[in-house]
Request: fold
Amino acid sequence: MKKYCVAVVGAMGAVGREMLKTLEQRGFPVSEIRPLDIEANAGKKVLYEGREATVGVAAKGAFVDVDIALFSAGADASLVLAPIAAAEGAVVVDNSSQWRMDPEVPLVVPEVNPDALDGHKGIIANPNCSTIQMLVALKPIHDAYKIKRIVVATYQAVSGTGAAAIAELAAQAEQFAKGEPMTAKVYPRQILFNALPHIDVFLDNGYTKEEMKMVNETHKILDPAISVSPTAVRIPVFRGHSEAINIETERPMDLADVRRLLAAAPGVKVVDDPAKLAYPTALDADGKDEVFVGRLRLDPTVPNGLNMWVVGDNLRKGAALNAVQIAEVLARKGLEPKAR
Amino acid sequence: MKKYCVAVVGAMGAVGREMLKTLEQRGFPVSEIRPLDIEANAGKKVLYEGREATVGVAAKGAFVDVDIALFSAGADASLVLAPIAAAEGAVVVDNSSQWRMDPEVPLVVPEVNPDALDGHKGIIANPNCSTIQMLVALKPIHDAYKIKRIVVATYQAVSGTGAAAIAELAAQAEQFAKGEPMTAKVYPRQILFNALPHIDVFLDNGYTKEEMKMVNETHKILDPAISVSPTAVRIPVFRGHSEAINIETERPMDLADVRRLLAAAPGVKVVDDPAKLAYPTALDADGKDEVFVGRLRLDPTVPNGLNMWVVGDNLRKGAALNAVQIAEVLARKGLEPKAR
Reply:
């Protein structure tokens, strides 16, 4: 069996840690694990398959002999480091937004467009977390009924912002319990007991960058003909993004058939039995690989409409798992480990 | 100046307390305040304008001499008690869902359809909290551009469920801070750090009763020709419902004109300056009378589309304030206090 030297860049971050865990849990064939991070974290230890690995500095020279480099180090670091890693021979799977809309870079959700990987040039982009889970759930419906328009409102977890945001939400809960005033540094307002309609920066058209990612990445991954109208909102949840999705399709939908298609779709789990109060929530998705779909109901306000509730673990399928799945597809498609 | 004997039914509940506070804050002309509740709460004291008032039992005979009875005691109690109160001569403003769709009962948002009060038969219904704030924000747009369709996803506070739900969210935060397991009784799942796509009971069509309230009440209050496609979601917020609203209008909208209309509309406050990170949040609306509107942006995916973010205090404008405003309109329209 082929085994690969895998680097994880940003290994000490929320997604980086999850990448290490996911590689291990899925038994990805690793010959050597190479955790990399900023200088301040160099020398720290991470456990991988029961053995300690020492965190190295993500810099020129660190990618020699690396087959696959999973990046979760932010857009700025990726701009500099991904080309270096690719030049040193690694195939980069980058979780940042840096390369996603580059026409030379495949943007891949393995359940949706695995063949976009063919002919990659050393850098592959992992889509935005909100987009990934939405498209995993919509792909089978699009194939059968052709989606024309999506109106989506998100309920996004703080872990999408990173480890500091997780700590801030926890700290605010502790401050609340002690009756202390709450402090906010990561977000411009208190996130505990609040909802902020603001993720990533605001653009000139009034939409946020997060919202436009959902538009542009849907076009690149699934179909440029689909209109997407998004509102992205941060809520006080640690892990698990939820989405209220309204779609209109070209062809009339049969609700029982939609359920069957979703139940049979890879990476999807339907949890939808209102009589038993069965619907997915962020806490149910925490640590899970699947994208959960519930609250399926036809929308009679348009000729062919459907409402649904889609939940996924933003750190797993929304980030680490999708990146590892891309590595798995690369391996299946015949990526050769370097001779050592 | 005319002064009125005002009963508050459910005076010890979350909305009942807010009704007392709102009457006082707005200086409603009260000759006598009569707090009423279930037998278990009888004899308790509430403060009103610096004087103690004793809670009486909400039952037959309790409404003699009452001019206006503000009810927030739930649908079951209202079914029995509202006709009793009306028969004893009070004008009932009921916050429950019991009478809202009764064709004999006006369903009123004072900024939207005050004239529906004319010819009332002693019972007036206060709409659902999510519907009220949505319609206050949409009324000026509908008047100018004629709304055809609304797709709305809500982010609703636990205080909409009542005092026990407020206590449950607080208790879960304290349990989290102590590292204890969290207990859920009011909601079927943990609400802290979660989002539940489930408010009120599920109906046969797959929508919840809360969602269908937004459909049916919009038709009754604003315009039966408007299509409404709702998803109602509970999030871990104490006070303040937020709504991601997407609308399509008959006529093309001018964004600057929409802003002007909203800025001039009664009960609306526009908070929308992305460059300064100005947008409304639930915490900003807490304790405020206005419905806050932000994130205004055209939706290019339909000919005449708009996305907006609407936030209101569900206990005030969504319940207590709207009821008191109805009482104010009744007083303005010439309701005569009883001779005493």
About this structure: Chain B touches chain A through 56 residues (CB under 8 Å). Chain B has a mean pLDDT of 97. The radius of gyration of chain B is 20 Å. Chain B has two domains: 4-127+319-332, 131-314.
